[in-house]
Each structure stands twice: as C-alpha cells, then as structure tokens.
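Reopening this one. Same input as before:
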Amino acid sequence: MTDARGNARPNRDGSARHTPGTPCWVSLMARGLAATEQFYGALFGWEFRPGPRPLGPYVRAVLDGHAVAGIGVLPPDRRLPVAWTPYFASDDVDLTAESVRSCGGTVGVGPLDADDAGRLALASDPSGAVFGIWQAADGAVAGVTGRPGTPAWNELTTFETTNVAKFYETVFGYDEDPVVSADLDYVTLRLDGRPVTGVHGVGNALPRDRGPYWTTYFTVADTDDAVDQVLHLGGQVLGGPWDTEHGRVATVADPEGARFALVRKAG
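Same output, byte for byte:
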C-alpha cells in the first residue's frame, strides 16, 4: 500500500497534475451535513470550506490549508447508500465516460461542470461498484498527502477480480499485478509501474444486501487510538485493528454507516 496519489506529471506552467487514472479525490455523500462535519472534524482534524454545488450542498474538508476530501448531502427522496466514493483523474471526463459505457459500465451522473473547479461524472463498473471521474480545471495535485487525515489507498471489494480488473484496466490504462494464491483473489492495479489501487474478490462472502463497493483508507498516527475515537464519536468498528504488511489497519463506519478504513503505515 503506497500513497497512490503520488502519480503526477507537470503542467505547462511547471505545476504538478494527476496522471489520468490516478485516484485524485474522495467524496462522501451523507444525510446530515452538520453531524458528519463534527464527526470527521474531531477524528481527522479537518476544517470545512464551501465547495462547488453541482449535486447540492457540498463542502471541502481542509487540512493545513489544503483540500483533502469532500462531503455532500444525499437528496432526501433518493434511496442511495451513505458511502465514500473514490474519484479517478481524467484529462477528458466525457471521453472517459464513453469508455465506461463501451466497457459495460454505467454513467449515473454527468458528465457535468462543478462550478469552475472542473468537470465530473459518477459511474459504476459492470459489477455495480460506484466510482467517480474527475477532470480538474487546473489539473492540480492535492497539496498534502501521507499525513494523518489524508486518503492513503482505495480498494474495491467485489465478487471476482478477473472481469472487473479488466474493466478498470481498459478504462484507465492500468497494468495488472495479481496475487498468485489459491486462497486469495487479489489484484493490484498499477500505473506507470506504481500501485494505485487494489481489487479484492471475495465471492459469496460479499454481503448480498450491499453488493460490490470501494473502501477508502485514511492515514492515522495510531490506529488503536483512532478506533477508540471512532467509538467515542458514535461510529462503529467493523473489523480489526490488525497488523498487515502495510501497517496496522481497522475497518470502521461513521454514525450514518459510511464505511472506511484506518491505517498506520508500517516503517
């Protein structure tokens, strides 16, 4: 597990921008914005600033002056899950959306303009997992990564990796690095040789009432302390903490049920 958002290339003006296919943003659609801000502000030290409003009320979570995530509000008349969604960079969101459709995925929202910040679309892969596509107006890379409170990794939990991984490889140009194991169906997707995301096939162990889903991992200074704080703030622990080759990890959920993971990286 590395900081996948490190994939960058220069703009013409010398500033950095995301390589297409790089995870570049995470966004949460919640029901109660004020309570959600209070939970994540206390857990990660985030402050909040008004953001673009293509989908209704929306705020940017800010850490040390840099935007690290977004939180929007689900329309009350729509029965959508409260969930974190990763966005993948694109130089042309309309073209990427067409690729999603031609590869068997679905584009549910957009492409549409997010004020002057850029252009986005929300899509789902052939198994139904939801993800976003983001074309930033200036292509800028997030200014703070690898610190507590910032996204570290995104991982897809799905039925099987073979067909789903091929979908993302075709849409975003990834290379595949499968784990050779009779007991584990896992593929790391790479971009320019660098790991950017993972796909974990769990077969019938996938909850039938949920379907395939993405999980965002956030860096923390101490996983056990962060788990205690999640519980104190009204969230729940879904798994762990446990030690892995990438660090100490726990899967948790906020008070509205949005799942995410905490990781204190090894080394």
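So the earlier flakiness isn't reproducible anymore. For the record, The chain has two domains: 4-136, 151-265.
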